[in-house]
Design a protein that fits this description.
The chain is of the alpha/beta class. It folds into 2 domains: about 140 residues, Helicase, Ruva Protein, domain 3; about 180 residues, Rossmann fold (3-Layer(aba) Sandwich). The protein has 16 helices and 13 strands. A 5-stranded parallel β-sheet has the order 3-6-9-1-10.
Length: about 375
Amino acid sequence: MEPQIGLVQPQATDLNADELAAVEKLQQGYHRMKSELGKVIVGQEAVIEELLIALFCKGHALLVGVPGLAKTLMISTLARTMSLSFNRIQFTPDLMPSDITGTEVIEENKSTGGRSMRFVRGPVFANVILADEINRTPPKTQAALLEAMQENQVTAGGEQHRLPQPFFVLATQNPIEQEGTYPLPEAQLDRFMFNIFVGYPTEEEEFQIVRLTTQSRKLDLEKVLSGEEVMALQEIVRKVPVADHVIRYALQFSRLTRKTEGNCPDFVSEYVAWGAGPRASQYLILAGKARALLKGRYHVSTEDIRQVALPVLRHRIVTNFNAEAEGIKSDAIVRKLIDHIPRQQYDEMDRNLARMMKEQPAA
């Protein structure tokens, strides 16, 4: 049964004049970053948009695609467009946790002859971390990123070492080559806000890729945002108001995937082993807030939720044997959910909400 919902008087925009100026700066920064990335990356506009939404939501992202689609180049170029430190970690089967987080070494004081332990920071101590081919290292090493991604710190020798802020883990994964790989556990997958699928370019895009990359050229990328500006914009995103009907709509995407709820659709009962947890609902709203601002709105609509549903949910829905036998992936489940949840009532509420927000001046 669909939950009872009603049109809720929207909140007044909580943004003051300075914050509204910051929103304008976010939109300008977004377009400038897309422009800078476009100097290096041809096409992939949806991927770039999802990557930047995760950035402004203080989330981590997993990019999945076959080799040669510029996943690594896209992440390194993104770091170059901001005044942020960047480290690339190539995940291999022999990589150890200390190779990521750092290790304690014995240091001798030459003047006194005394010895003490000193922590040598690993490559995880940077603003942007590229975890290249993250599924090529064993679970013990993969787990070394868990604390960093969730708590923004590293624990070594009983002491906590804070990571620099802002902090993003952007990982890549090859979906077709499974020999010598270690699938990411669900607990770590859930730490990624987005699972972004990187597809093949169109014929025209591939033509431009070949033409541009087979000639000599020198690229000068402009620094668009500093770390302090990124953190300020992340706080602005969280101040975007959300009406209750939008939250109810987002909740259905998560709750309808859980067979234990008792009201899940038939296709969920047939093809889903485990559904999405509460973190999915949180990320749907956060991503909706960022997308609304990037589209020039100060409120979230149900259309924003639909547009971010795939990257938020595709790695949080575990399909069963029936789905595997019939070749049904989690993306198909999410698309069925989008069609299954009634839109007409929510769309009408969105229109009323947009009208009231337009009539109500910002504070």
